[in-house]
Amino acid sequence: MKLDTPESYERPEVRELLAQLRTELDGFLEGMMSAKNVSPKIPHDINSIVFLGVGGSGIVGDLLSDITAKRRDLPILCHKDYFRPPYLTRDALIVAVSYSGNTTETLSAMVEAYDAGLPTFAITSGGLMKEICKKLGIPVVEVRAGLLPRMAVPHMLGAAVSVLASAEFVRITTDEFKSAIEEAKRAQESVEVHKPLESNVAKYTANCIYNKIAFIYSHGYLSSVGYRLKCQLNENAKMLAVNQGLPEVLHNDIEGWNPAVANCLAVVMLRYKSEHMVIREALDRMETILKDRLGVAVSKIVSEGDSDITNILSAMVICDYVSLYAAIMRGADPIRVDRIRSMREGIMSNVRLLEQMARRFKVESK
Q1: Phi, psi (degrees; rounded to nearest 5) at 47
Q2: Rounded-to-integer distance, Cα 201 and Cα 198, Å
Q3: CA-CA distances (angstroms) from residue 227 to 56, 58, 141?
Q4: Contact 314/303 with Cβ under 8 angstroms?
Q5: Whose CB has fewer CB within 10 Å in the chain, the N or C terminal residue?
Q6: CA atoms of 218 and 279, how far apart (whole Å)
């Protein structure tokens, strides 16, 4: 089997991504340390937290929202656009996240939020965001540079958790996070390269989906992991994927499936052992219909942790390995994202917006 042969991992781009995957979980604690000495002056009457970000940086808000769902008393929203949400008032805390620091959408929305007087802090590795924040006095957490933006998610997420926990907006201790990371490392070991396909859920899943369009189904706090997997398959494996959540898919998606698409589509279900009975029955029923009645390939990734944080981190790292193995099966370069770069460089309005902001704040355009 291709995924069990050493030569499959010899390409430089595969080695590079694998190296970043193997240190991914350590990035959470590194990100928390990056934020240790950053204490934004946040008003105590905040009634919502709004994350600004797109792409890999935008996923930070999605993951944090799910991780803290049972550990906070105010909503966390994720906004992925050029403009700040017009309904926001000064009771909303803005968290602007851009790993490169040069994401036009996030910079534009952050500046709009600042102009509207909204309390703001930023997370970045540098770029225009860092320089603009310095000019405006916006607190900024600077995380380690030099990573693929999609692989810097743990660093940025750890930084966000640290700041929001210090401000007592979320209730997560460092010990809780460390415990979840250790559990996730055990899950990671179970899908490592040396584990054969028959006992490796990441290899098995990749083998089921690599030559198809993948539909990812999840529920509750694994929804953000489903979205992360969709994006990782897009960028690492260069394949189309769709992310959907229960119970909504029971009211629409299921009607669209038929045997005619069974050969070109596949399903990945993200599950956890402590599912509510109604969710368990719904997913089991859906699997039966898809596999037995319609002949669709269905694979499952089941998190075995005892807490939502553990399940999220474990599922995330397993899914990242799925994307690597799918890239290997497809012969894709999991590092380069030439189409994304070409798209962004070809949108001249993006270029002009960055230049305008650089001129306005008298900083160097990166």
Answers
A1: -115, 0
A2: 8
A3: 10, 11, 25
A4: yes
A5: N
A6: 10
Which tokens is 32 given? 């928390």
For the chain, report the end-to-end CA distance as a whole number of angstroms: 45
Q: What is the DSSP string of 96-155?
A: EEESSS--HHHHHHHHHHHHTT--EEEEESSHHHHHHHHHHT--EEEPPPSS-GGG-HHH
Which structural domains are found in the chain, ordered by start? 35-172+336-361 (3.40.50.10490), 184-330 (3.40.50.10490)
pLDDT over threshold 70, residue 366: no
Q: What is the DSSP letter of 238?
A: -
What separation in angstroms does the CA of 173 have from each of 44, 47, 186, 198? 20, 22, 21, 37
Condensed to tens digits (0 to 9), the pLDDT of residues 67-116 reads 999 999 999 999 999 998 888 888 999 999 999 999 999 999 999 999 99
118 CB neighbour count, 10 Å cutoff: 18
pLDDT tens column, 127-186: 999 999 999 999 999 999 999 999 999 999 999 999 999 999 999 998 999 999 999 999
Q: What is the pTM of this model?
A: 0.95
Res 1 pLDDT > 80: no
